Structure formats: structure tokens, C-alpha cells
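Page 42, continued from yesterday. The earlier attempt failed because a stray header line got pasted into the input along with the sequence. Redoing it now with the clean sequence only.
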Amino acid sequence: MRRGFITLGTWCLDRNIVLDFWPNEDMAAHVHHITLAGGGSACNFAVNIKKLDPEMHVETQGLIGDGEKADFLISIADTFGIRRSGLIRSDLGDTQTTDAFVSQETNRRTHILYAGVADFLTPEHFDFSNTTAKIAHFGLPSLHKTMDQSWQGEENGWLASLKEAQKHGLHTNLELVAGNETKLKEIVVPCLPHLSSLVVNDHEIGAITGIQTQSNNATNIDKIKFAAKSVLKKGRMDFVLVHFPEGAILVTRDGKEIIQPSVDIPLQLIKGTNGAGDAFSAGFFYGFHENWPLLDAIKLGHASAAASLRSVETYTCVQSVRECLDLTNKWGWRSALANA
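This time it went through. C-alpha cells are written below.
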């Protein structure tokens, strides 16, 4: 019986830089402090799962450099008990790095990326022949030059890898990242028929469908539902789940819809949104893996995301399943979504 998770793709070093505000061009802002942490979907998701449940099986595969940055990332994997035999060192370039700027004025994040060795990641770095995991969590398309291009007759390397994972019986999910919407759509749409599920935010579902999901600076629930159903028609996923600050919406292939507001975390406790999406996905997929009702899995996703908001780092404040759910009892849930 398969059990646990395998994360594949982005491992990078995050430099979390807290500013008093995000400046306009040619202007200056004051840096309050800088911290180092692991980053990228493969790292964040893996660590979050282990923080939710240290006993859960988690393994990872990806490409890092061959210096101190790579040593740092390996130490993170070892600290949390993530199996890392597939995390390969390469001398083709430096480890991928992200400068994650967080504005104290708005708590919004701005990412400046250095690809480094990530450009050389290929489907050949992924091996599913020996994994005992149940769920394969891939990411991040548009941030890996070779993976984003055609590969041995397939439209891109992500598609080739997803097909291979499904051949080995894995549930496949693809984590996205905000970026060039045209490029993201070109990469992701061909992958949809080979995803078992898709969990994205409101910006990302809009990017891959071309549907504007916000009206008057607020998430439009009807547009989210329409976009999610549009994606279901283009793929073979069992469900599409879209999360956003106010809540989340899940639609299933058999027509079921679930809407759940997010946790009503006190504003003064929010330090940054960096990694909240990874935390949401980890919480949701933990519940899904354990065969919880989908609504309960979504609630754990919200709880995990809320816990992560208390730090500028991606996973620092995520806690155990029980502790995350206790936060929902303490803070409660936001009111019903306005146009649900």
C-alpha cells in the first residue's frame, strides 16, 4: 500500500528581507532584518507535511548546487527527516536563490529570483521506480528553463514527468507560481490531462484560464467557480481547489461544490504571506491523504496557512495538525463569502 508524499522540483535558498515599505523605482527603503530559510514548493511542502505530522513519510527529488547554499538546504531536509536521496547536487551552477521582500506596510511579498542550477533540471532527475509515496507534488513550472521547454516529443518536461509519475500509480498535483501569465498558461494547459488534482490560488486559476477572477479588488466567487469548472473540462482531475485570502472553493468532477471561508486570524499577528499557499496545500493534502472528508481537509489547509502567516518565512510557524486546528477554535472563521 502506498503512503506518504514525494515532492519534486523547486528547492531554493530564500533570503527573507523585511522592509518598512516597497519602494518605487529610484527610491529607497529601509531593511529591518534578513533571515535565511529553505524555499520553493518541493522544500516548503515537504517541511510543512513533516511539521504537521513528523511520522508521515516524505521524500523529495530536485537539483541543487554544490556549495554552502546547497549544504544549508540539505541540513533542512535532514532536520525534518525528509528522505533526500533524490536531491541531487550539480556543478553546473549555483543553487537557486529567491530574495523574498516583505513590506511591513502591507505584509505583501515581492520575489526576485535567481535561477542558477534550476535551469538545468530535467525529467531525467526524477525517478519513480522505487518510491512508495502515494501523492506526487510537482513545482514550479515557469521557473525551470529546461523543464519548461519541449522534451523528447512532449510539449514540456513537466508533462513528461507527470505522465511517468502516473504510470507508476502516483496521484499527481502541480504547484504553480505567480509570474508571466502567458508563459504559465502555455506550460500548464497541456499538463491538465495528466493531473489527478489541481490546487491553485485565484491569480493562478485566472492565468491558466484567461478569466478575470477579481472584481473591484475582491475575489469574484462566481468567476472562480467558472474558472475551476473550465479547468476540469480541459483535464481529468478529480477536483480543482482554488484558495484566496478570504476562503477556498473546491469543485469536483461529479459536480460537487464546497466553499469554506478562511481562518479569522487577528491582523496584528500577520507578519507575511510568503509560503501561505504551500502551507494551505500541505494541510489540505494531509487531510486528503488520510481520507478525511474534503471539507475537513480544506479546513486544515486554511488552519495551516493561517499558522504560517505569523512569520515572514515560509514554514517556520506551521505546527502539528492538532495545534493548527486548535488555532481555528481560538480565532474562528471569517464570515460567509459575500457572493457565494
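Notes: The chain has a mean pLDDT of 95.
Reminder to self: strip header lines before submitting.
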